[in-house]
Specification:
Chain lengths: 131, 132
């Protein structure tokens, strides 16, 4: 991971992790930080969109699918429909292996779909897709 | 069967009794010098959230006994967190509860929830002992 970051020059890789579960936020943040990524975590899609208006240099969004008020799918759609945000790769996570859900996210432009609990090896394969 | 060779006798026992699965070992693998108490911190978060969710489900079973969607939503969250820390037995009981929700079987939900609460309490005791 660090060699990839070095290849990007001085630009820091900053990942936004979105999950309403504090346990899962802690877990995904730790996995990402162990790969030397800068990580910001938020607990909702709404907060994610608020942060994205303030923080332009997000390399990737990793979001849980099932969240109250705004699902990860709805967040994905909002990002992909925004001219400012659409280039940010979005990865969706879920604890449930539902093929329709996975296909819907991928068709909407998700970069990948990870089954929870997420492992370091899952994050490793995202490295080349960071913006 | 998950074979485990860590020297900590206590941890082996908790795993071998089926309370925890390989995911807990993954948490331990993430613990390092930069976050030396990572596992305990995550477990603390889990019991904070799970205690709240158990209370929510308790209340929902009393106040909204036919609102199986509400019950399932709470249990989905609880199951997810249990899975994330490797709480295997508890996760299985959560799955059973959700199956009863799906069938709109209130009696089944009530029985199953007692098992969820029991596994939650036992796991809490075992992990408290482990971290002492």
């Amino acid at each position: 991971m660090s060699s990839y970051a070095e290849g990007r020059g001085e630009q820091e890789i900053h990942v936004l992790a979105v999950d309403d579960s504090s346990v899962d936020r802690a877990l995904i943040a730790k996995i990402l930080r162990s790969s030397n990524y800068r990580v910001t975590t938020v607990d909702s899609g709404k907060r994610a969109l608020e942060l994205l208006t303030l923080e332009p240099n997000i390399s990737m969004i990793i979001t849980d699918y099932w969240m109250p008020e705004m699902t990860g799918y709805e967040l994905l759609k909002s990002v992909k429909e925004s001219s400012k945000l659409r280039e940010i790769p979005v990865v969706v996570m879920s604890s449930e292996n539902v093929p329709n859900r996975i296909n819907r996210c991928l068709e909407e432009g998700a970069e990948d779909f990870l089954l929870k609990p997420v492992r370091p090896s899952d994050v490793s394969r995202l490295c080349s897709r960071m913006r | 069967m998950f074979i485990y060779t860590r020297p900590a006798y206590q941890f082996c026992q908790v795993v071998l009794q089926g309370y925890l699965d390989e995911q807990f070992y993954q948490l331990e693998e993430l613990q390092d010098e930069s976050s030396p108490n990572f596992v305990e911190e995550v477990v603390t978060l889990f019991f904070r959230d799970s205690s709240r969710l158990v209370a929510n489900i308790d209340q929902a079973l009393q106040k909204y006994p036919q609102d199986f969607r509400r019950l399932d939503n709470f249990m989905h969250q609880l199951k997810g967190s249990a899975s994330s820390i490797g709480a295997a037995k508890m996760k299985n009981e959560c799955t059973s509860f959700r199956e009863f929700c799906n069938k709109e079987n209130r009696e089944g939900c009530l029985r199953s929830f007692q098992k969820v609460k029991k596994e939650h309490a036992v796991l809490k005791q075992k992990l408290e002992n482990y971290f002492q």
